[in-house]
Amino acid sequence: MVNDYPAVGRSTPMPVAPSFVPLEFATPGVVSTQLLAMLHARRHLALALFLAGLLATAAFALWWPRTYTATAMLEVNYAVSDPQQGEELPMAQVGSYIATQIALLQTREVLVRTARALALARNPRYARGYRPDRGTMDDWIASRLARGLAVYRAGDGGQLVYVGYTAPSPEEAAIVANTVVASYRLIERERGASAPRERLERQSRQLAELRQKVEEAQARVTAFTRDMGLVNPAGAAPT
User: Fold this and answer.
1) What is the mean pLDDT of residues 178-182?
2) Is pTM, for the whole model, over 0.70?
3) Which of 184, 195, 200 is nearest to 80 (CA)?
């Protein structure tokens, strides 16, 4: 039986129907529908990973040691005058003067006095690791204090200097910061009180040296006049 279809020659191209590709497969990469499908298929595993990460973060936060920083404020008075000469500090030297005070706040003398005032040598956390071949206990504790100490000037360039200390507890941080400031002020007061005494002692030494030089000069003059016969043995002037 022969069908009544038209004969098509071999040279005639066959029509090709256009192919249809879904939109989610036509776009390269992962689209939102595919991502949602994957998450839904692995929802139990994703939830377990999320909870494990949350617990690990909480455990790390609890394990990590906490630190607290306390800051004490100190006003540096640069209006210094000499009672003997009446000289005041030039304004051009204010910056270097305050920088010097900041350096003095971090010196060994201030830190050692702070450590002794707080009896930190009996504190196991500060004395831990000390060995006699590394120096004295005062030097060891002063170096430990210097690690947590931060001294800086106010940003507006005023007279305020901030002394900060970092410690495991807020109480310890506040006590150390305030003691550093108190030790610095006590040392500065002692230096100010000793300055007039040192000046008087220096002047006394200078006067004593001058008196000795005058006596030596007078002795040489007396010897010279006696050798030249300008004075008789009785002390009267020659005729």
Assistant:
1) 92
2) no
3) 195
